[in-house]
Amino acid sequence: MKIKTFIGAIFWLAAITASLVAIFRITANIEIAIGFITISFGILAIIWTSIAIKSLSPGSSLRGYAKTFLFCLIFIILFSSWHALGKMLGWEGSIIFPEYVFIAIAYLIFAAAAYRIWHIGKEFGFREQAAQIKRVIKEKKRRGKRKKS
Amino acid sequence: MGYKNFMLRAIMAIAKVLYNKIYFMLEMRSLKEEFKKLKGLDEYVALVTVDAKNYAKTNLGIIKQLTKEQTPGVYVTLSKPYETIFETMQKKGIDTRLIIFIDAVTKTAGGELRKEENCLYIGSPERLSDISIAMDQAVTALPSAKRFLFFDSLSILLIYSQPKTVARFIHFLAGKMRVWKVKGIIISLRREKDDALIKELMQFCDVKLEF
Question: How far is A117 from chain B (nearest CA, A)?
Answer without folding.
Answer: 13
